[in-house]
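Sanity check. The docking grid for heme C depends on where the pocket ends up, so I'm generating a full predicted complex first rather than guessing from homology. Inputs follow.
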Amino acid sequence: MASLPPFLKVSHVKSCVHCHGPKGKGGIWMTNEVKSPDISYKNLTSDEAPYTGHKGHKAYNDEMIIRAVKQGIASDGRVLDSSMPRWSIENDDMKDLIEFLKTL
Ligand code: HEC
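Predicted complex below; grid placement will be based on this.
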């Protein structure tokens, strides 16, 4: 866990990795229909990458990633399943989060 940014260590210890896996690769079934997707930065910002959730997505940019995390809205405007929590995270921590996703 050495590479986790401070906000993840302090306030969301089990947060993203709890559902998206230690490497953010997803693939964990949440319900009978919803599997957690790959949230590595590379995957999120690509149209091509395979998606391990229940649907494909269009490429995210940083603002769209933050919107997904805070408001549960996917890059294409779809409302994410309620098994993906909505997080209230300050903007500074969001920058750390984006950096964290880049390490996955
Ligand atoms: C309780 C389980 C859970 C936790 C904790 C969780 N997620 Fe998710 N997340 C999901 C599920 C399930 C989905 C897929 C929802 C769907 O497709 O409708 C998802 C979807 C996403 C998506 C959209 C991906 C895409 O391809 O469209 C992003 C981005 C995301 N999560 C980021 C995060 C981040 C960052 C954290 C930590 C701050 C986090 N998630 C914590 C369960 C979780």
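Relevant for the grid: The two ends are 12 Å apart (CA to CA).
Also worth noting: The mean pLDDT is 81.
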